[in-house]
Amino acid sequence: MKHGYSQAWVEAKTAETMEQWSRCALKALPAGTQYTAKEHRAHEKAYDKGLRAVEREGRRAARSSAMRLETQRRIVALFPQFAAIALGLSGAENQLITGSFLPMGTELARWSRRFDRTLSNAGLVQACRNAWTCCGLQALLGKPMELTPAVLAYSLLYPYSDNYLDHPGMSGADKLGFSKRFRRRLLGAVEAPGNGHEASVWSMVQLIEDQHARLLYPQVYDCLLAIHKAQEDSIAQLKNRTDAAQESLEDAELLRISCAKGGTSVLADACLVEPLLSPEAVQLSFQWGVLLQLGDDLQDVGEDLRSGSITLFTRAVAEGKTLDGLIGKLLNFSHQIADRMDRMPHGSSALKSLLRMSWRSLILMAVADVKGYCSPAFLADLEPSSSFRFNFLGERSEQLAGREAFYNVLFEAFLEGGAGERSGLPMPRAVDLASYDMRADQRLLATSSLA
């Protein structure tokens, strides 16, 4: 049976998820492991020890290109001991990270750099995060954990398209033009790119088409069009409005925007892994995406307040409310999704435990950055659930931000460590820019009826 994901379907699934979110406020914080002050100190000591070891290896690699591969091996070898003490990970969970997730991310980054040397480290990390979500979905759907052409391509569409539309240097007209051309390309049109950036985006779509034929798997392209529309709605409704128009947005509308964007994003991940999804897999992937989007919204409170973007979390801060209630909801929401994941027939117990821990850690680490917007009583109740004290996490986050240049060098050294390796993933066919007539594209935009 083939599944379709129309706009009406997305709206219904979004409304259903919003209702589930509203019910999360009726429960106490979910139970979980509680850490004592002594355990916090042990975890923090292990964290600092691991960080010093990584920096020591990084300085060694920076001095000699011959040390690159050895540096990679040493850093990977450091992780299990750190993770066992500081994060409480089991041997099986450590093996998943070092044997599956990390190699997939490294393969993606190396392939990407061969394709486009201009991709930033931040963009590559963003792409890796999406690929890791796909990696988890593969196991939960009974598939081998591997980087496929479609997963690679969709993961790179984030830094290529989403960030391009968010770029403050682009005019509204330029963003609209790109977005319209991108939509037509997703619909299957033979759409000539307007510049090198668009050529890269078109190449990623081509990689997806080569793996998932449009006639056989139309639902794949339904998902890609759904996330594209959700991105457009997010930009139009949250970033291009006047202050008065933003203030008029109801909390329900802010939640709807985040749910639609997050839910369709990970639904697309799942559909690229397995185009014929079961209802249980559809439900899990959509809600997983909402969780990640709301987690990102919580992480980005400071940045969004500075840029003027509005979310449920910045709205609460602007109204002088604490974030206690929203964070409590998010933790309960995470717990419910993890319970749903546990009922999936595939995926090891170690994988499910690791994903559950990662979702909770995403929220708790964000709390460390936004603790100034939480009540002292709430922080005191929540902190024992965290492997680290919130003050410790905040301090280390500032320290790492101050060493960004060093870690960029280390990142490059890590990728260079296997520079001689070649992935079996295909490179996309070249897109001919020389024959492209910009005036023809301008006429096309003027007459197109596609939104």
Low-confidence stretches: 432-451
What structural category do the secondary elements indicate?
A: mainly alpha
Q: What is the number of helical segments per DSSP (H or I, 4+ residues)?
A: 20
The tally of beta strands, per DSSP, is: 0
Listing every helix as H and every strand as E from the N terminus to the C terminus, the arrangement reads: HHHHHHHHHHHHHHHHHHHH
Number of domains: 1
Cα separation of the termini? 30 Å
Q: What is the CATH fold-level name? A: Farnesyl Diphosphate Synthase
What is the oligomer described by this structure?
A: single chain
Query: Given the C-alpha coordinates, what overall shape results?
Result: globular
Overall average pLDDT: 83
Q: Helix share of residues?
A: over 70%
What is the CATH top level name? Mainly Alpha
> What is the CATH architecture assignment?
Orthogonal Bundle
Beta content comes to under 5%
Question: What would you say this structure looks like, in words?
Answer:
This protein has helices at residues 7-23, 37-63, 68-87, 91-115, 121-140, 149-166, 172-186, 196-211, 218-238, 243-247, 251-273, 279-299, 301-307, 312-318, 324-342, 349-370, 376-382, 390-402, 404-416, 438-447. The protein has 20 helices and no strands. It has one domain: Orthogonal Bundle (Farnesyl Diphosphate Synthase). Helix 1 (7-23) crosses helix 11 and helix 5 packs across helix 11 (251-273). The radius of gyration is 22 Å and the shape is globular. The protein has 451 residues and is an all-alpha fold.
